[in-house]
Amino acid sequence: MTHLTASQLRDDVATAIDRVALVGERIVLRRNRKDVAALVSMEDLALLERIEDRLDYEEAEKVLAEMQANGEKPIAWDEAKKQLRLT
């Protein structure tokens, strides 16, 4: 994995994008000697989103099981938005 400072990225952003998009390289961006962000391919981003979706699904299943065990029932999304004043 490559590390670049913000100024290094500014100097040659096209090359960095090509390395990520065409080769699949991951580039970590640093500012003040700290890692602050990363450039990743669209394939890596899609994988991260699938992982996040899976974790969300597992958490929802866990909460639903707990609700059922406690005799609680979920409420409809429209009702939740009203209760939270999101509409």
Number of helices: 4
Q: How much strand content do the residues show?
A: 15-25%
Measured between the Cα atoms of the first and last residue, the distance is 45 Å
Total individual domains:
2
What are the segments in which pLDDT stays under 50 over at least 5 consecutive residues?
Answer: none
Instruction: Characterize the largest beta sheet: strand count, sense, and whether it forms a barrel.
Output: 3 strands, mixed
Our Rg estimate from Cα atoms comes to 21 Å
Q: What is the element string, with H for helices and E for strands?
A: EHHEEHH
Structural class category:
alpha+beta
Strand order within the widest sheet? 1-2-3
